[in-house]
Specification:
Layout: E1 8-16, E2 28-32, H1 37-52, E3 59-67, H2 75-85, E4 88-92, H3 100-112, E5 116-120, H4 122-130, H5 136-144, E6 147-151, H6 157-165, E7 172-175, H7 192-195, E8 202-205, E9 208-209, H8 220-224, E10 229-230, H9 233-244, E11 250-253, H10 264-278, E12 283-288, H11 298-304, E13 307-315, H12 319-324, H13 335-344, E14 348-355, H14 362-375, E15 380-385, H15 393-401, H16 426-440, H17 443-456, H18 460-477, E16 485-489, H19 504-538, H20 561-565, H21 578-588
Parallel strand pairs: 1-3, 1-4, 4-5, 5-6, 6-7, 8-11, 11-12, 12-13, 13-14, 14-15
Antiparallel strand pairs: 2-16, 9-10
Helix pairs in contact: 9-10, 10-11, 14-16, 17-18, 17-19, 18-19
The structure holds cobalamin and iron/sulfur cluster.
């Protein structure tokens, strides 16, 4: 019957916006280094709508996706393709606060051509979840006729498409209080052509959402909730198989804390089965917390399932800062055991470190980084400013108290001081951030990390490549390594609205000089680090290398030197080193 209906098309163009650098150019690369899971999630949802023909049996839903971090958005081309299809919409995907100004600039251009635009992601969801009234920037989007989507879209995408197709889309879709179950939910997927724009062909999926902890700087718990919602092993297997069919077997599991995914074990068991019985060459990058070593078998199973690297939120080594941010779960006296447990499985560790907690000063930060270098066997340390991200409790409190915060959302990328600090001026804090990279990534410490990699049997090329990127991204490119890619592109015309588009005679000589300077600095860094690697590899002593950071705790109650430094700051929580607290109390008498 339906076969007689003339076919129509509805084209959905999904764009994950990037954000602007200091000069107002879009941060984009020939190849990015990390995949966008938000894009993969929404792509999967639109594909489901296409399969289910939610706009009617005669309407073909066509979908295309791009991540602006690795693809130039051709606005005119998008307009042409949607017009050629006869109907459609632009989806601005996974828009974070720092990406909001860029997303608005893109939305404005599409709206000027009369296209329907829908925007979702953490800025929209976080602001609507936490603030009593709609902030001015979200109102600006509404005034442009952009539709906002707050919450998660699983099970809701068909409604949005139908509304857009019939011209009845709502200004705001609000689904924050009704979080979808993830069991049997549609899973994230991207076509190979999109994935190949990520160096190393990494794809991603979230095996779960929600985190039980309550860190005050966190946005996630206020948008995705604190209850663990998780995918089934069958779904995870289906994700792996669907990607493997396109030749993709490397995944970033984007759960903020995979260790608190209540289904972690059956999921890992299934991945282990796929690797060990069916020879899938799975490689995983996961995010965990600092208590994960206490979960029986967790680390061992992660390694068997193909985990070669982890991200963890160390955040700070001063218990006072951690308590202030309600990060009570971080027990500094267990940091070394936890890191050694990962090393024993040959897994590389990346740790996030936040600068700007209320009691931080340039001196304490410098001291703490030196302590980490000497006493903790972490490979990569990455620095962030403590930032009141929209959607976090910190942001809400400052907002309600009327404390000044940077009005430019582009700066909420964890690389800028966005509010005042009680002990440091903005200039000092900025200097401290730059100094932190300098202080950690000294050639001497890079050499120590390489020696530790050799003795622990961790893939040295992987460690060396990461050291190069993390050492150079902020200092050479001026962008955080999490936003890094290979070969920066700066398009003369893709400049932030309000800033002038330079003429070719001014732009190209500047860009050529800029390119040569940056390339020269990279080549120098790569050359230096390769020499360090060669030296370490040639030195037989590397194979028996030992330093304080690699020393396991041998007797019960034994504490690290740095734990003693913070003895008076450690709260009397369960498991805290009593000997240290007692010693500190005795010393104080
Ligand atoms: C994986 C990840 C990354 C990856 C990939 C980016 C990505 N978005 O996929 C990498 C490592 C590149 C990354 C980098 C950064 N990230 Co990040 N990242 C995440 C993380 C852990 C998961 C993202 C995800 O996949 N979520 C699951 C998806 C399904 O949720 P979602 O994006 O919200 O999308 C759903 C809905 O919002 C909605 N939706 C979204 N878009 C649209 C569009 C339409 C049209 C519709 C209808 C619906 C819709 O439907 C989706 C499905 O339910 C989140 C935390 C989190 N739990 O979400 C942080 C998070 C998004 N990142 C954050 C930040 C700050 C950054 C960085 C600036 C720095 C940093 N510290 O990491 C950089 C920015 C660089 C960049 N280019 O994105 C913040 C953003 C907070 C904010 N208010 O802006 C978050 C929330 C974490 C935090 N610290 O609070 N990140
Ligand atoms: S552990 Fe991570 S995801 Fe969980 S509340 Fe803290 S910052 Fe958020």
């Amino acid at each position: 019957m339906h076969g007689n209906l003339p076919k129509r098309a509805f084209r959905v163009v999904l764009i994950k916006p990037s954000h602007y650098d200091h000069d107002g150019y879009v941060i984009q690369w020939w190849r990015s280094t990390l995949p966008s899971n938000s894009l993969a999630s929404v792509y999967g949802l639109i594909e489901e709508c296409a399969r289910d023909r939610v706009l009617g049996p005669d309407v073909d839903i066509e979908v295309e996706a791009c991540d602006e971090c690795n693809t130039i958005v051709d606005v005119a081309g998008v307009v042409k393709r949607i017009r050629a299809a006869g109907a459609g919409m632009v989806g601005l995907i996974g828009v974070q606060s720092n990406q909001y100004p860029r997303a608005l600039d893109l939305g404005r251009q599409f709206r000027a051509h009369g296209l329907a635009v829908v925007m979702g992601g953490f800025h929209v969801s976080g602001c609507i979840a936490m603030l009593p009234t709609l902030p001015a920037d979200l109102q600006e989007a509404l005034d442009l006729g952009i539709h906002l989507f707050a919450g998660e879209a699983e099970g809701r995408m068909a409604e949005v498409l139908r509304d857009v197709a019939t011209g009845t889309a709502k200004p705001i879709y609000k689904y924050l209080n009704d979080l979808p179950e993830m069991a049997a939910a549609v899973y994230p997927i991207l076509p190979r052509a999109v994935v190949t724009r990520v160096a190393g062909h990494y794809s991603s999926f979230d095996a779960g959402r929600g985190c039980p902890f309550q860190c005050s700087f966190c946005t996630i718990i206020n948008v995705q909730g604190r209850k663990s919602r998780y995918r089934t092993p069958d779904d995870v297997e289906a994700i792996v198989r669907a990607n493997a069919a396109q030749g993709i077997t490397r995944f970033f599991i984007t759960d903020d804390n995979f260790a608190r995914n209540r289904n972690w074990e059956p999921i890992l068991d299934r991945l282990i089965e796929l690797r060990e019985r069916e020879n899938f060459n799975i490689r995983l990058l996961i995010q965990v917390d600092t208590l994960c070593h206490r979960i029986p078998n967790f680390i061992e199973k992660c390694a068997r399932a193909g985990c070669t690297a982890i991200f963890l939120g160390l955040e700070n080594i001063n218990p006072e800062s951690l308590m202030g941010a309600k990060k009570r779960q971080n027990k500094i006296w267990e940091y070394r055991d936890m890191l050694l447990a990962w090393r024993a499985q040959k897994v590389m560790t990346y740790a996030g470190y936040i600068l700007g907690f209320p009691t931080d000063t340039p001196e304490t930060i410098a001291r703490d980084i030196e302590i980490i270098k000497k006493e903790l066997p972490v490979d990569i340390l990455e620095f962030f400013y403590l930032t009141p991200l929209p959607g976090s409790e910190d942001h809400k409190n400052l907002y309600l108290r009327g404390v000044a915060m940077d009005p430019d959302m582009n700066n909420y990328d964890l690389e800028h001081a966005c509010t005042g600090h009680p002990l440091m001026s903005k200039e000092t804090w900025t200097r401290v951030y730059a100094d932190a990279w300098q202080r950690y990534y000294t050639d001497a410490h890079v050499e120590t990390i390489m020696r530790r990699a050799v003795v622990s049997g961790i893939n040295r090329t992987k460690v060396l490549d990461s050291l190069t990127i993390f050492s150079g991204a902020a200092r050479i490119e001026g962008v955080h390594p999490l936003q890094f890619g290979f070969f920066r592109r700066k398009l003369r015309r893709q400049r932030r609205s309000g800033l002038p588009v330079l003429g070719p005679l001014a732009f190209y000589p500047w860009r050529a000089a800029d390119f040569l300077k940056v390339t020269g600095r990279w080549l120098l860094l790569i050359w230096r680090y390769r020499r360090i690697m060669a030296r370490v590899a040639a030195d037989p002593a590397s194979r028996t290398h030992f330093d304080e950071a690699l020393r396991p705790h041998t007797s019960a109650g034994e504490t690290d030197h740095f734990v003693e430094v913070f003895a008076d700051k450690i709260p009397h929580t369960h498991g805290a080193p009593v000997r240290v607290a007692a010693a500190a109390a005795a010393a104080a008498e």
